[in-house]
Amino acid sequence: MYAFYSLLVYIFYTLFRRDGEGAAAAAAHTRDPSQGAGSLPRNSRPRPRRSRSRQGPQQDLWTELNGLDSPSDPDSEADRDEKQEATAEGAAGSSPEVSLEEAITHLAEFLSLQLGTGESWTRSLDPDKAPLLLTLTGQLLAVVAWLQGPGEKRPPRFQHGLQHQLCGSQQTEDPAPATTPTLSSGGQPLAPDGLRGAMRGEPKGQSQQREEEHRDWQWLEGTTLGQIEELKQQLAHQEEELSRLRLGVGVTDSEKRIQHLTMENEALKQSLSLTRDILLQWGPGPLVQTPSPAQEEAEVLMELRSRLRETEETTETLRAQLGVQEGQLWELQGALQELQLEAATRESEQRSKRELRQILRQLAGLRGHIVALRQGCGDLRGLVITFIQNYQGALKEAQGQVCWALGELSASQWARRVPEIRKKPRRAYQGRLLELRGNIRVLCRLKPGSSGNLLNVDPGPGGTVTANYRGRQRQFHLDRVFPPDATQEEVFRELEPAVLSCLQGYSVCIFTYGQTGTGKTYSMEGPPEDPGIAPRALQSLFREMGAQGGPRQHRVTVSMIEIYNETVRDLLAPGPPERLTVRQGPEGCGGIHVPGLTCWDVSDLRALHKMLNLGRRNRATAATHMNEHSSRSHALVTLTLTTAPPPHGPGTAGTLHLVDLAGSERVWKAVTTESSVGVGAGARGRRLREAQTINRSLLALGGVMAALRARQPHVPFRDSQLTRLLQPALGPGATAVMLVQISSRPEDVGETVCSLKFAERVSQVELGPARRHRTPSSGTPSSPSTGGTPSLGTPTTPSSEGISPQAEQTSSSGEPHQVS
Ligand SMILES: Nc1ncnc2c1ncn2[C@@H]1O[C@H](COP(=O)(O)OP(=O)(O)OP(=O)(O)O)[C@@H](O)[C@H]1O
């Protein structure tokens, strides 16, 4: 390639000199190319010369061209030596004559060798296979040949190459018929008309010749520019290939290929630049004024490269930013998923809250409905109670009259039987027997009536009651079980030792417990023809006192209290029953204190029955559908038996509590039963309140029993008026006997089981060993608390045992009178 450029420099140098010095001088210089060529180095790379006056490198270049025709042939080496010698001679002043045709021939051969085709330039070239650079070079040579001389002296071989190239490149591009190349008669391509006329040497005028030359120049310029465009396209193709190869990573061959293509590109650029310079300096006016497209392309190419690099850098920067943004995108996606999970959780919580609020609203609606139902139920109960109150009001008076009459009759009968009783032996062992049996005993008595198969009774001492209730069979063990056919006498005989122990200073409490209508009052009071526990106890006591020395050795006082709706009333008050207040006794003494309680001092049995009948009349009773004689209050009769001490010993102060508890009943049962008979609202309300207070007081009694059984330090005696008043009877050293009344009717089995459960709990209570209360040995009986002188008809003093007669007293005849 260097030699090729050198040849081009030589050719253009020749042409430039011809243009500057005239055609003749140019021919002379062409025939003498050795002038001034000795200073050009052999291997130096020639550069395009713009100066036309420079002549130095011609000789060396020519010598080099002569040596290039056959580099591999030793003969050619010899010829080259000869040529070098001849060149040396020429440099000395006798240079060999080398024609332009020979130079062109050498150039063609050189080009053939450089292209590696192995063919000589003299051979015909295939226009389709000839490289573009070779074509362009041949075209330039044709121009040079045409410029070297007149038409007839121009070498035909050069004409052939020129015409051939013109035919190959401009056959379809130049539509002008005058410039369209044609084939000669020998099959060779022909030059344009002007150029052909110039080659033929036809005589023309000076202006016409100039016009033809100018037209030829235009044609040549167009052709050359076309070739330059093709070179540009090749250059672009090479650039694309170069870019594509640059994209390869780590390929050594590709790098080599890149370097090779880079060098070729550089050569093509230089060739383009050289060609453009030739055209600029060689052609006439229009050609000189034509801008350098190759240079512009090179600049554009450089600009594009710089833009490409900038674009690549921008791309790398954007990729880095893209990687960072992808990382941020992943983080945002993770955060988004967490937010979605949180949102789902919040949504489920809100849904649960909404459902809960809806349920609460429904619950509030149901509560309101229940309240309305309760109000309606209360109104209905009031109506039933009112009806029962009116119904029972009419019976109350008649009942009181009947009770009074029965009491009078009973007193007269007992008075007639006293002499017989006095004949019986004294029972001094009764107190000892009481201690051996235990301080609390539970007896059970069945009410006569229709008996089903739900209750099985094993009567007698240590008897059992087996109940079948709600599919379960439960057995209750009791101290004694009285069958339905047990008489009043049999029941009292079981209790008589405890009653008589009061004369020895013991404190005894006998109370009846059970469902309404099961016979509590019947067992405690009994009808006049068949008296119950209380009349028999009084009879037995007076009989015993008579046997021990007569009533003068004993002092008997009696008081009677009713607890109705938690109100304590004095049943033996001379006037209407007064309301009493139960207070705690003096600290350290235990017991209770009831200020204003009337206490009757009785001297005989008749007076005592008179007092009890008075109390029965005052007792609040209310008839119910279940038991028209049912008492709706608790009744407590207290007898204090003070024995005058013997001459050399203390006396005794015993107490007997006879308690007839109100019937335990289910409130709903009583009210619903009353509603069926149609009572007023006021009576219904009163009956409902009675039932509630009765059950509340019985529940308190159960609590006291449970605390005593568990031996708890605190016993809740203050929970009700009943337990307050029973505190002395259930305290340490006292003796208690509970008679549980049960019904054998199938419809009452539930209440029966409840009563038996309560009895079982009471039987497990430990009150401690029974203790006797003695009076000081002053010779006269007195109250245990004050030690005063016992004398009938004198005021009594409060007892430390509990119920204390205080305000009033009776005479031995039973007439009440005020304490003076
Ligand atoms: N063992 C019995 N023998 C004969 N009749 C009895 C017997 N027990 C109860 N009765 C009768 O049953 C009815 C109700 O008895 P009682 O009044 O004694 O029951 P109650 O339990 O005292 O009722 P309340 O708790 O309402 O006072 C009475 O008419 C009574 O005569």
UniProtKB/TrEMBL annotation:
Which stretches does UniProt call biased (Basic and acidic residues)?
A: 199-215
A Gene Ontology molecular function term for this protein is: ATP binding
What are the boundaries of the region Disordered? 26-98, 164-215, 765-820
Superkingdom is: Eukaryota
Q: Which InterPro entries match?
A: Kinesin-like_fam, Kinesin_motor_CS, Kinesin_motor_dom, Kinesin_motor_dom_sf, P-loop_NTPase
Matches recorded under Gene3D superfamilies: Kinesin motor domain
An example GO CC term for this entry is:
microtubule
Query: What Pfam families does the annotation carry?
Result: Kinesin
List all Polar residues biased stretches. Answer: 166-187, 801-820
Q: Does the keyword Cytoplasm apply?
A: yes
Basic residues composition bias: residue spans: 44-53
Q: Which keywords accompany this UniProt record?
A: ATP-binding, Coiled coil, Cytoplasm, Cytoskeleton, Microtubule, Motor protein, Nucleotide-binding
Predominant localisation class: cytoplasm
- Give coiled-coil spans as residue ranges: 228-321
User: Disulfide bond: is it a keyword of this entry?
Assistant: no
Kinesin motor domain location: 439-765
- SMART domains tied to this protein: KISc (SM00129)
**Location of this chain's protein in the cell:** Cytoplasm, Cytoskeleton
Locate the residues binding ATP: 514-521
* Bias type Low complexity, positions: 776-800
Output the GO biological process annotations, alphabetical, semicolon-separated. anterograde dendritic transport of neurotransmitter receptor complex; axon guidance; synaptic vesicle transport
Give the similarity note.
Belongs to the TRAFAC class myosin-kinesin ATPase superfamily. Kinesin family.
Q: What does this protein do?
A: May play a role in microtubule-dependent retrograde axonal transport. May function as the motor for the transport of multivesicular body (MVB)-like organelles in dendrites.
State the protein's name.
Kinesin-like protein
Q: Which organism is it from?
A: Monodelphis domestica
User: Gene behind this chain?
Assistant: KIFC2
